[in-house]
Amino acid sequence: MPNPDRFPSLRGKAAALILPALLSAFVPALAPAQPVGLPDLGDSAAQELSPRLEQRLGDAIMVEARRDPTYVDDAELTQYLTGIAQQLSAKAPADTPEIRIFPVRDSSINAFAMPGGYIGVHTGLVVATQNESELAGVMAHEIGHVVQRHIARGMVQQKQDTLIMVAALLAALVAARGNSQAPEAALAFGQAAAINSQLGFSRGAEREADRTGFQMLEGAGYNVNGMASFFGRLMQTSGLNESTSQAFTRTHPLSIERMSDMQNRARSVAIHDKANSQDYYFVRAKMRMLQAASGQEALDAIRYFESRAAETEGIERAAAYYGAAIGWMRQRNFAKAEEAYQAATSGARSHFMLARLAVDLALARNDANQAVTLARDAYARWPEQRALALAVAESLQRAGRHAEVVDFLKEQTLKWGDEPRFYQMAATSYSRLGRAVEERRNMAEFYAMTGALPAAVEQLQQARSASKDFYEQSQIDAKVRELQRREREERDLLKRFGG
């Protein structure tokens, strides 16, 4: 579950006060606001929150939660975490919803499950793990909460009080939508955390998530001791009052009984000695640098990586130099970044994240054509990496080769399907080419995929006005009707819920 103390304004009694205040302040104004897809949760006495409605609730929260400044939209990190989640959930029951992982820029050690199979993973948690099986163990535990539907069950038990808090959360998010300076805009995950903290996963639920996660961990071939070793280390450090680990232990109550249960289960199965993937080292390095909140913290992280590079060898040394390189990039010291990159790739060392770094360095030198060459070569070698597809499109755009961009992105939208940025980038290139209809249709797709339905409809209406093709106009009209139907349904659900 989330940490309710992630944002100072939600600590202690403030969390208990802010949500009712937001409800009274914003709920009356919801009807004319852009709908957020709030599901009809029905009578507060209902005995079950259906999986479909739980999914719609999760989708509604995530549409706005992506505005939270700590939400990390990084293809490399998301794809890595999603890959682990897919390995684990493949060993879960068949009716398990799709698990969608997203990183959160926060140095505290925590992870949390949200409605609808969404799981947030703090950068601090990844950095704190000592091996990939530990990371997989924590993720398996969170997926265990999803498999056992603990959030839905908790909401049903709390009934109307929890529904009011959910309404307050979404009302605040809607109110903040048009004002990026509003304090509510930065509280998305904090308010979700406050709601989840009220659900209070019991020790029994935690044990249930442990056992379900343990089965997935074993089935996916990870070392099952990873779960017990990480939780055990957190239990020890929380006793020493280390604030970074308290975030997890407050929301995931640990006990000797739970630890003994995990250790006993580990003794009864074969232990897989699974080596860390190369990706683990590079991802952990990037997350350590990403969570640096200031220039001084970034410099401290660079010094850490330089020290690690001097003490390690092989892939760990390369990942340390990679961390230093992206740190120097952040400091805009491109000469130092290039030097660290060369050290990371010495001995013909290669990795797709190093290849993406090479593209970024070329773009920093304003050598867009070289960046295109590097990006295309890298994507040809690692075609399963979405970040490299994005690198190709970005490089082509920087080189002003917009006709190539739109052709490339047509292929990528068919291949990946669920990447909004491909449509946003295509819209930019269509604009440069003076093709207004395609520009607006792609922006409409981007808005629809990110939940901004009124903006999507507006873009489509502009596209229709610019089009002279009857069949194209008919396609646009059909899409507009579909989006308007979705918008009406969401508004009706919101009104029924508020009533």
From TrEMBL:
InterPro entries the record matches: Mito/Outer_Membr_Metalloprot, Peptidase_M48, TPR-like_helical_dom_sf
GO biological process, one term: proteolysis involved in protein catabolic process
Signal peptide (from-to): 1-31
Pfam families assigned: Peptidase_M48
Keyword Hydrolase: yes
Peptidase M48 domain: residues covered: 80-265
Name of this chain's protein: TPR repeat-containing protein YfgC
Record organism: Pigmentiphaga humi
